[in-house]
Design brief:
Layout lengths: L12 H13 L5 E8 L9 E2 L3 H9 L5 H10 L4 H8 L6 E4 L5 E2 L6 E6 H6 L1 H24 L5 E3 L8 H13 L4 E2 L2 H7 L9 H5 L4 H11 L4 E4 L5 H17 L7 E5 L4 H14 L6 E4 L5 H9 L6 E4 L1 H4 L9 E9 L5 E3 L16 E8 L5 E8 L10 E5 L2 E8 L2 E5 L2 E5 L2 E2 L6 H12 L17 E3 L1 H14 L1
Parallel strand pairs: 6-7, 6-11, 8-9, 9-10, 10-11, 15-21
Antiparallel strand pairs: 1-5, 1-12, 2-4, 3-5, 3-19, 12-13, 14-15, 14-18, 16-17, 19-20
Helix pairs in contact: 2-6, 3-4, 6-7, 6-13, 7-8, 10-11, 11-12
Length: 480
């Protein structure tokens, strides 16, 4: 079945049955506040990376039901005709605040907040979550892999192993924001500007009478971007020697030294060291070595620790699927409703599992930075009307262990959530993918190295203001 570009029905059916219920009981115009947040960083990491906001913006702007959608829903036999007519004219009229794409984010804090009439706020839950969960997951995994490469370029190679076309294209987009140098996915380049590149498959080599002819022909066709795949037959006995011969006979006479070989199997440390010596001895010290073959951040880290002579990496299935932990776990929870007089009534969800107890109220999130180092100290979740004065000392405390307190001075403060929609109108200027990529790199630089460890990272604190903590405790006592 071929989907259309209208994703309005990409929703959980309960969003429609609840919407019909809100409509029938007269609370459809009740203004509600919902937060998107996540509970755990994938792979046990110290932070995640927000991605997917642009697609949410596009979805909100195009949100509408077609007559065919209404006919389909009418056929389900569970919705009132008045509600169906309401849906036919539905447009998003609410407010949305969100964290800009590429921003490091932490468990428990809102990364997107919706304020809208009940039906609208409830209805967009599924699409908002699936976009943020998927792209934040891939961005987070990609950045781990990029950091493991220690400055060496990483290309996303995973389209053929992704879970569908959208996962391939949007995954490539998220990976580029998070630091990958490019992608093998041509459509991601055309649509989102993630630079596409590629060389050859083993079938190219097999199509020619011999390996040298395959390499020679490729160098003749693409002299300025010749990367030769040298493991079709035997890396050291034929692949590298034939590549050297092709480079020296075709490229060097033209003054071209920009070339590379790619290793896609075998012991990459051993083969890269041997290949590097062969290339250097042949007078090709500028020839790069690219490695691929089921790589991830741990394998890349180990290769480099073992002294592998690898200049760049192509990473496929373990990046595009985040194979080690393929679920991000973002949730969409009601945090408040608005009374007729405009005052806000906080709401809380209580669970036997303390980690699933929500933070109530309409909130804002501040990130605090040390002025001396520029490094992030902590994030502070506050009630929406709280303002932090950085000229005054600020006491922070661990909301899970309130006796752990720290007073900070000489700091800078920044709100994380920025306005995206106001009264249904887009007020946010969407940055280019290059701007998001630059932003991401700069914001990660504000994190201490201890937070960026792959194993047992330092716990970055996400604290509650005293006012919010008091409100939460009061609601817990009322509902307990």
């Amino acid at each position: 079945m071929k989907h259309t570009d209208n994703y309005t029905l990409l929703c959980d059916f309960y969003e429609l049955t609840m919407g019909n219920g809100y409509f029938q009981t007269g609370i459809d115009k009740q203004i509600c506040y919902f937060d998107v947040f996540f509970r755990d960083v994938p792979d046990g990491g110290g932070f995640a990376i927000a991605a997917g906001l642009e697609q949410i913006i596009d979805y909100i702007q195009d949100l509408h039901f077609t007559p065919e959608d209404i006919d389909f829903l009418r056929g389900k036999g569970v919705f009132s005709e008045e509600f169906l007519q309401y849906l036919l004219n539905l447009r998003f009229t609410g407010d949305i605040w969100a964290v800009p794409e590429g921003t490091p984010i932490f468990p428990g804090e809102p990364i997107l907040t919706v304020r809208a009439p009940a039906i609208e706020a409830q209805f967009i839950e599924t699409y908002v979550l699936l976009i943020l969960n998927h792209q934040s997951l891939i961005a987070t995994k990609s950045n781990r892999i990029v950091r493991a490469a220690q400055g060496r370029p990483v290309s996303e190679f995973g389209s053929r192993r992704a879970q569908g076309p959208d996962a391939a294209v949007l995954g490539a987009r998220a990976s580029y924001i998070a630091g990958c140098a490019g992608t093998a996915c041509t459509l991601a380049d055309r649509v989102y500007g993630s630079p596409a590149g590629g060389t050859m498959a083993h079938s190219w080599v097999q199509m020619f009478p011999d390996e040298y002819t395959a390499f020679k022909t490729y160098c003749e066709l693409y002299p300025h971007s010749a990367t030769l795949l040298v493991d079709t037959y035997n890396v050291l006995k034929s692949g590298v020697p034939n590549a050297i011969r092709a480079f020296k006979e075709i490229l060097l006479p033209q003054g071209i030294t920009n070339c590379a070989i790619r290793l896609d199997s075998g012991d990459l440390t051993y083969l890269s060291k041997k290949a590097r010596k062969m290339l250097d001895d042949a007078g090709l010290p500028q020839c790069k070595i690219v490695a691929s073959n089921s790589l991830d951040e741990y394998i890349i880290r180990d290769l480099l620790q073992q002294g592998a002579c690898i200049d760049s990496f192509g990473v496929g299935e373990r990046l595009i699927t985040s194979k080690s932990e393929p679920v991000f776990g973002g949730v969409y929870k009601l945090s408040a409703v608005e009374r007729p007089d405009g005052s806000i009534l906080p709401k809380i969800k209580i669970s036997e599992n303390p980690a699933k107890i929500t933070n109530p109220h309409f909130k804002k999130v501040y990130r605090l930075f040390e002025n001396d180092t520029g490094k992030a100290i902590a994030d502070l979740i506050c009630v929406h009307d709280e303002v932090i004065d950085p000229s005054q000392p600020l006491e922070l405390f661990d909301p899970e262990a309130t006796w752990k307190r720290k007073t900070i001075t000489n700091f800078t403060v920044r709100e994380l959530l920025v306005p995206i929609f106001q009264s249904g109108k887009l007020v946010y200027e969407k940055p280019s993918i290059e701007e998001m990529r630059t932003w991401c790199a700069g914001q990660i630089d504000t994190l201490w190295d201890e937070v960026k460890r792959f194993e047992n990272p330092h716990n970055y604190y996400v604290d509650l203001s005293q006012k919010l903590w008091d409100i939460k405790q009061q609601l817990l006592k009322q509902r307990g």
